[in-house]
Amino acid sequence: xxDTPVTPGLPGGGGDPGGPLWAAASVPVGAAVDxxxxxxxxxxxxxxxxxxxxxxxxxxxKWGPVHPTEHGWNLDPADQLVAFAEGHRMxxxxxxxxxxxxxxxxxxxxxxxxxxARVLATHIETLVGRYRGRLASWDVVNEAIAxxxxxxxxxxxxxxxxxxxxxxxxxxxxxxxxxxxxxxxYGAEGAGRKSDAxxxxxxxxxxxxxxxxxxxxxxxxxxxxxxxxAAIAANxxxxxxxxxxxxxxxxxxxxxxxxxxxxLALQRRVYRDAIAACMGMPGFIGVTFWGVSDRxxxxxxxxxxxxxxxxxxxxxxxxAYFGVRDALAAARRPRPV
Length: 337
Ligand code: XIL
Description:
Blueprint: H1 21-24, E1 29-33, H2 35-40, H3 42-51, E2 54-57, H4 63-66, H5 76-87, E3 91-98, H6 113-130, E4 137-142, H7 155-160, H8 164-175, E5 180-185, H9 193-207, E6 214-217, E7 220-222, H10 229-241, E8 245-254, H11 263-278, E9 284-289, H12 298-303, H13 319-330
Parallel strand pairs: 1-2, 1-9, 2-3, 3-4, 4-5, 5-6, 6-8, 7-8, 8-9
Helix pairs in contact: 6-8, 10-11, 11-13
The chain binds (3S,4R)-3-hydroxy-2-oxopiperidin-4-yl beta-D-xylopyranoside.
């Protein structure tokens, strides 16, 4: 695909068709959102509303923040975010019901299986049931595959057993039969052991009749070593061939360790090529970025100061923004005859 050259000073360069991301794309375009930032950062709020038409709560629905004690729930931030999205006709992707991180202390790895089953059921029924009919989709199980393949050792696996994955999907489906239910993971975008393990897991779940509808590929990428676009396309194609949907669920591209050339131009290419590899495949149904601007990103604390997102710290669009918009728009262009 030709890459529109960027003329400094002119957004997107000479041939820039303009318009926000969501309007360029035939699929929803989302961002991870922190309801607190919506209140205290006007640039954040304005950019989110202008460019995106879908949101994923970055932390507000995770087990630790939302269900900090066994009988105590902190649902205000999640409620606020869902109400905000509804007020602006944005789609909400729930994130996440069962994950090994950001867990509360009261989840005890020594609990007997019957108690683990009850805890899992109460958590999922309460949270999914609360927003029944209002959320488009949920990440039901997050990052359950270990980096070397095979199921990760988690409190859920230890207490409930390997069947916790299937059980979580069954519980979520019963609590909101209309929601699309996802398995979500990182490092499973292109070719490799982890992608193969994710593929094997979801195929097995489908064989068992588990209500699983899609796979989220996180795409926390490093510009220095991105997955091959052809490998991404092949991986997405094999997941789609199982009858699943696929979405890019948490995209950002780190450039701190990129060497040689202009890191922002490289970042633009990595974003564009990864998205272009997926766009247009029937069943590929959306892209969500893990934040809005470089001013607020989890990358800074997790991997060191970086510039991983589409807007800079002052909410100006970066080269990556225009690369993403090109990739999102390309799939809409009629093919030449
Ligand atoms: C991250 C959030 O962005 C941070 O604010 C939080 O401190 C830790 O979690 N994979 C996921 C996301 O599924 O939930 C993580 O989000 C990033 C990695």
